[in-house]
Design goal:
Length: 215
């Protein structure tokens, strides 16, 4: 087993939401390439650690669940920190967060994105992004990748076939299962998408009432 560092990039936003009781969002572009395991993810079952170490790529563990992902500068990460009383309504929170991101993509000119599986964002029959959620008392921390123009070959190099998969994957390998905005004919520059997506989400969150969410 190699070194696994805590993934803390989103902690400041989460702490700010907890302190203020406000729904907050962040859209950011990863700097460099890294691999991120889910909270309960297995290095032995999910990663090609030899290739990762050969390339000098850092490995992190995030506080949310889900499978391992490769982040690079062709990705965007969309983060929502939502005040939500209690500890329940996880399914409803996932649905709400996905709908907010799907709405933001649609407003930015990408119609037809859907949620499939537990939490994937899908365009056509291919995965455009995978999300995770951490539920704490009074707060939901949601994050999803949006694949703009990623180095898809790194998925095969760094990630094993996942130990769990959604039914719609149909045993497809990484390169036949995922897509990107660039592959779908949209702009391939993540910087073009980041500010409009965040602006839409901020407006959407500004007057939303979360205390009525129920599973």
């Amino acid at each position: 087993m190699g070194l696994i560092l805590p993934y803390t990039r989103e902690d400041e936003l989460v702490e700010q939401a907890r302190a203020t009781g406000r729904a907050l969002c962040l859209v950011y572009r990863p700097q460099g390439t890294c691999v991120v395991l889910g909270r309960g993810g297995s290095e032995e079952r999910e990663l090609h650690r030899a290739a990762i170490d050969t390339d000098g790529v850092p490995v992190y563990r995030r506080p949310g669940g889900g499978g391992a992902v490769v982040l690079d500068e062709g990705n965007l990460v969309v983060v929502l920190a939502l005040p939500l009383p209690g500890l329940g309504a996880v399914t409803a929170a996932f649905r709400l967060a996905s709908d907010l991101v799907i709405g933001a993509l649609g407003a930015c000119g990408v119609p037809g994105v859907e949620q499939r599986g537990i939490s994937d964002l899908v365009l056509g029959d291919r995965k455009l992004g995978g999300s995770c959620l951490r539920r704490e008392r009074g707060l939901v921390h949601y994050a999803t990748t949006v694949l703009v123009a990623p180095h898809l070959e790194l998925m095969k190099r760094y990630l094993q076939y996942p130990p769990r998969e959604p039914a719609y994957r149909l045993r497809r390998p990484h390169d036949a299962f995922v897509t990107s905005l660039a592959a779908a004919g949209y702009d391939n520059d993540p910087a073009v998408w980041a500010d409009p997506l965040e602006a839409y989400l901020r407006v959407s969150l500004s007057d939303f009432q979360f205390d009525n969410l129920r599973d």
